[in-house]
Design brief:
With about 425 residues, the chain is mainly β. The protein folds into four domains: about 1-135, Immunoglobulin-like (Sandwich); about 135-235, Immunoglobulin-like (Sandwich); about 245-330, Sandwich (Immunoglobulin-like), CATH 2.60.40.10; about 335-430, Pectate Lyase C-like (3 Solenoid). About 5% of the residues lie in helices and about 30% in strands. It contains one helix and 27 strands.
């Protein structure tokens, strides 16, 4: 059989010897829990590569090798020109086998070779797709995310954990995963497990990396590749938008007095974490606080009288999108205050604090740093702002009856009547 071709007589003989078992319509395999111990390319090609006969599910010469880095079975066999058929037989028997379109006990897979060829065969036990590099384009999504899938490293075209498959034979190859954490990544399509042929943005050979984002931990991401245009598209799930709100257990809080921040995510997601930040920096003990139902909490204490701009960011999970809370300004005082009314805030730093509409009646803000603070509509009746720094502060519509502004610092300040201190002779006095 130097030509590798099968005569009609030999094809008939093989069919008769194997009867239905070695033909086309084998019964579907029984359900199993364990991975296969052996995968054999069994078919009319086996005698060409050293097997005693064809359609032998136990012949070691055509067994594939499991590659743990790829989680795929692979093997390369030198075949003469000819027309062949094959299937994947598991565990050295026909009890479980897969044919065309990954169908259990399905049709034989045809393989036509015009010339002698080294053919590489593949079997993925996750999808039961069995194919070869003649019938199919062997394409991998290689990129900055592959380690998250279990590959030894990123940007590895030989790691088939991100193999683009086409079991149904539609001509469009796809890979689906829910293993990626929330983040931004890049990818390209690599052909035949190497970088020799690869496609980037727009299907351009050796083109730019293709950026994509995973909107939340565990989101279902679909990678689709068209071998005609070489274009890779990446799509995520339709997301449920969320809202994160943040509350403080006590505000203002005294130095060394514990305070608890509670973030509430609506609608209630399946899971996820919340990261709490203080003036933009993560609070060390609260970087990934798990949700319990709809809420997550963070405890803190402070050693000095400065303001803290607290935010909470929900990570997102599955089909629930991430979201961030509005800023909550936590005021820290020397002694406990039930409210800001009459509170002693002497010398406190409240730069950029959002105190719009706050009740600061009779509060002591002597020497307070209020640079950029929003005091729009705040009630400052009888408050002491002697020496307070009000540079770029917003006092629009603030109530200032009886308030003291002696030696206050004014610069680009929005006065209570809506004018600007720089246009009022460098002070809001007279425009309160």
């Amino acid at each position: 059989m130097a030509s590798g071709k099968r005569s009609s007589l030999m094809l008939l003989t093989a069919a008769l010897v194997g009867a239905v078992v070695l033909g086309v319509a084998l019964p579907p395999p029984a359900a199993r829990a364990a991975a296969p111990t052996a995968v054999t390319i069994a078919g009319s090609l086996q005698s060409e590569v050293g097997c005693p006969g064809d359609w032998d599910p136990a012949c070691a010469s055509t067994q594939l090798v499991y590659h743990s880095n790829s989680d795929v079975w692979q093997g390369t066999f030198a075949l003469p020109a000819g027309a062949y058929e094959y299937k994947a037989a598991l565990n050295n028997s026909w009890d479980e086998n897969y044919g065309l379109h990954a169908t259990p006990g399905g049709d034989n897979i045809p393989l036509a070779l015009a010339d002698a060829t080294n053919v590489r065969f593949y079997y993925d036990d996750k999808t039961h797709w069995v194919t070869d590099n003649v019938n199919s384009t062997i394409a991998t999504v290689a990129g900055s995310f592959q380690q998250d899938l279990g590959c030894a490293g990123d940007w590895d075209p030989s790691c088939l954990r991100s193999w683009l498959e086409d079991p149904s034979g539609t001509g469009v190859y796809s890979f689906v995963t829910t293993a990626l954490p929330h983040g931004t990544y890049e990818a390209k399509v690599a052909i035949n497990e190497s970088w020799d042929v690869n496609y980037g943005q727009g299907g351009i050979p050796n083109g730019a990396n293709i950026p994509f984002s995973v909107p939340s931990d565990g989101a279902r991401m679909i990678f689709s590749y068209n071998p005609s245009t070489h274009v890779l598209t990446v799509s995520g799930p339709a997301l449920t938008q969320t809202t994160t709100n943040l509350k403080s257990s006590i505000n203002p809080v005294a130095v060394t007095q514990p305070v608890t921040y509670t973030a509430t995510v609506t609608p209630t997601p399946m899971a996820g974490t919340v990261t709490f930040t203080d003036n933009g920096a993560p609070i060390p003990s609260c970087t990934s606080a798990p949700l319990t139902g709809a809420t997550a909490s963070c405890a803190a204490t402070y050693s000095s009288t400065v303001s803290h701009n607290i935010e909470a960011a929900y990570s997102g999970f599955g089909t629930f999108a991430g979201s961030a809370s509005p800023t909550l300004t936590e005021v820290v005082t020397q002694s406990p205050c039930a409210s800001l009314v009459g509170c002693n805030l002497k010398g406190v730093t409240l730069n950029d604090a959002n105190l719009a509409g706050a009740h600061l009646n009779g509060a002591n803000l002597k020497g307070a740093q209020l640079i950029g603070a929003n005091l729009a509509g705040a009630d400052l009746t009888g408050a002491n702002l002697t020496g307070a720094n009000l540079t770029m502060a917003i006092l629009d519509r603030a109530v200032t009856s009886g308030a003291t502004f002696k030696q206050a610092v004014w610069s680009d300040t929005t006065c209570p009547d809506g004018t600007n201190s720089d246009d009022d002779g460098g002070s809001c006095v007279g425009h309160l």
